[in-house]
Amino acid sequence: MKVVIAGAGSVGSSIARELLSHGHEVLLIDEKPETESRSELTGAAWLIGDACELTTLKDAGMDSADVVVSATGDDKVNLVVSLLAKTEFGVARTVGRVNNPKNDWMFDDSWGVDVAVNTPRLMTALVEEAVEVGDLVRLLTLQTGVASMVEFTVPAASPMLGARVGSVPWPQDSTLVAILRDDAPITPTGDDVIEGGDELFFVTTIAAEDELRALLAPKP
Predict the structure, then answer these.
(1) Does the pLDDT at position 125 exceed 80?
(2) pTM for this predicted structure
């Protein structure tokens, strides 16, 4: 998979390092020439230039990119890069970093953003996920605000205990995609039995979150 990352600061470099370790092709775009010389990344391609300029994106071979990540510290730049990637180069998947939570509402399909990553919100979600056993926690918003990834930690007194995954009447627009048990991920099947302490991960429409929450909530 070819991934183009705009912004080679700490965030962009960390993403690049992880992707390279998984065998992906990575190209980093940054305005500052010294960024490349300071970087300890090996295996990444570099392009020094303004990612908001069409000529720079053409030089980056944006039309052959599978994913574009806008990871600069400037929300305006991240929006412009995402929009150009979608409208001018037809990139299938764009990920935009949200620096200022007040700008979160702009990171949607109107600006070409498929997935908006709001670091403060994600950190809040992870904190809540660590302490809110028995409550549904949204981890990530997907598909331009229509869908989300949510997590539910099954409490010891849950009515779900002992239920087979295939026998639970999950909401129509919610899909159980993974179970984390004893720090090991499980791909759920209809025969898997839900245990106390299981972390259930769902991809769901935001509209169906309340229905899913009501299903999972302990009965009075």
Answers:
(1) no
(2) 0.63
